[in-house]
Write the structure tokens for this entry.
Amino acid sequence: MPKTTSYLMRATATAALLAALLLQTAGCSVNEGRITKTGDIPVEYADTTYYINGSDEPQLTTTCRGASLIRDGYAVVNNNGNFGYMDDDGEMALPDIYKSATIFRDGKAWAVRNGSAPGVINRKGEIRFTLGQAIEAEIFYEGYARFTARESGGIRYGFVSDEGEITVPAIYYNATRFSNGRASVEDMNGKWGYINTAGEAVIPAIFDAAGAFDDEGTAIVRSNNKYGTIDTDGNYILQPAFEWLEKDGKLYIATREGKYGWCNREGEWVIEPHFGNAMRFFGSGLAPVQFPSGRWGYINKKGKIKVKEQFDEAYPFVGDMALVKVGPYYGFIDDEGRYVINPRYTWISPDYISNAVSGEPCYKSVRSDL
């Protein structure tokens, strides 16, 4: 949700890593396309990037930095500031000729060449269309991409279809992505409402902030500095009463007096807010939480501590493993807290962490080089 503290900003990872991971939508937006089991994880050891499996066995090797997870058969790689695409055999499928590039989704990606505007390419690198007016452009959700352009003396938000048609002109002061056929948009008065894919208002702009709808037709909104939820008609399901809300499956991460816990859809606490920070279960049986000591451990859905506080950083489970950090080194644990990959890596792909924490890719937007 725009204008709120994002999940990644709340996490206690290193500042440099966080800077690489900041998402354009904040923590209470819903995820789409979260990779729930990663067969190949980009890590760095002795100045080489390896893709390792769950047994810590190298599968692929690249000299490029900033490699992403493999999606749609391709990974985004960064070669000294030049971006390209590597296939799942470790071969360069598209050369590193781009100033910025997004992941592929449904055979399409945004890419920007030197001195060019954002364009959509196919898996062969052929340009399907270019959005000349765009300053930034984001990956497609439900067939539409959010973009920014300079209009009326400022930066405004609009939407373009995956066929290159601008369906919503860049007239809004901010916007989230489309979900359930709706996107939240900010008007000139700083109020948020919702539009459909034709740009027609479907929920009036009456909120101080508004997030994307989840797959059950519920969105988090803010009013009078409190968070609640609405349905697709704009009716309140949960009246605004919380300091913070974050969708987590059938539950919400919520705060009371700055402490994190979980409540249900009726607003009833199911895990009392005792923690200094928390991240989502994402369907797993365990979630990472931060204790008063500043260390991280894991609790189950009854709030019982299952993995004691011992980590400098801890992240949600992806499949049957969770990334943790002790001192300068990253490793992976199972749901008993046992190491399946010992802490020995000094770098983990920001894209892996972004996927684990928010369900979103790291490389999700590009910026014009005009």
